[in-house]
Amino acid sequence: MKRLFNLLLLVLFIGIMATPAYSQFEGEITFTLEQFGPVESEITRFKVTSFNDRIYIASEADVNVITGLKSDGLLVRNDLQDFVFNTGENQALKVTKADLDGLMNMIERFSGQSQTSAGGQSNWENRIIETDNTKQHLGYDIKEIRLLGETVDQYVSIWLTEDIKMMWGIMTNVWNRAGNRFLDPEFPIELVMNSNSFPLLVEVIDNGRLAAKFESVGVETGNFDRSVLELSDQKRLVSITEVMMNMFR
Asked: Most buried residue among 125, 149, 158, 173 by CB atoms closer than 10 A?
């Protein structure tokens, strides 16, 4: 069940980074991820800003991008077909779709696994339940879908709204090539990576108890900071090739 939870959070995070082709949600959503331990719970907070064809994800905790390089924010620029990781006050790592394609080509050559063998639809029909449960969350109508675990008291409850829609843009191609290398081949990726609904609340139940919760705690569609979707002139962009060369010097 713990593996299922970790895989789901990865999907949700990547899903949030998706850039739309149309019907883009415009606004700012604040999320918390809370994991309940034996002594005290651990809470991580991050914010997603979306407007036009760009999305910025800010985290209160640094995330390792590659060895020795951390980032507290990711800018997805669908108009320029790239991803920009904020790695310092005056520096950012730029990763293009071509960079990712080249990396995946190299992995496939060394592993002997083709692009087509890495894809495919999931086979979760018998472990997905569309319940009749509905409620409101932050003013949005949400309905529940459950992913069953190994026992009856282990499942993931996903609450989706049809009032927030995001299209996948360049993330679709990236995920089709790389996603199944990190997830169980039978994970129902199409359940959460779709353009018809968006998860506002996810609850992980383990042994009948709430083990973790991924929750939107604020949605702002009027007054929000759009400047985070642009890079300042002082920000120097470095390529992944430059970063790798500096690591080996």
From this structure: 158
Query: What range defines the domain where residue 209 resides?
Result: 2-247
Those residues with Cβ within 8 angstroms of residue 129's Cβ, 6 or more apart along the chain or in another chain: 145, 146, 148
Angle at 29 between CA 27 and CA 31, to 5 degrees: 170
Backbone phi, psi, residue 30, to 5°:
-105, 130
CA 193 – CA 249 distance, rounded (Å):
40
How far apart, in Å, are the Cα atoms of 229 and each of 53, 83, 239, 244?
Answer: 10, 12, 19, 26
What's the token pair of residue 106?
């190299």
Give the list of residues 6+ apart from residue 37 with CB closer than 8 angstroms, or none: none
pLDDT in tens, 160-177: 999 988 665 666 566 555
| Whole-number pLDDT of residue 51 | 87
Domain count, the chain: 1
Find the farthest-apart pair of alpha carbons in the chain and give their distance in angstroms, rounded. 59
* Mean residue pLDDT across the chain: 76
Nearest to 13 by CA among 181, 222, 175: 175
Q: Treating both helix axes as pointing N-terminal to C-terminal, what angle do 170-182 and 2-16 enclose, rounded to 10 degrees?
A: 170
pLDDT score recorded for residue 116:
45
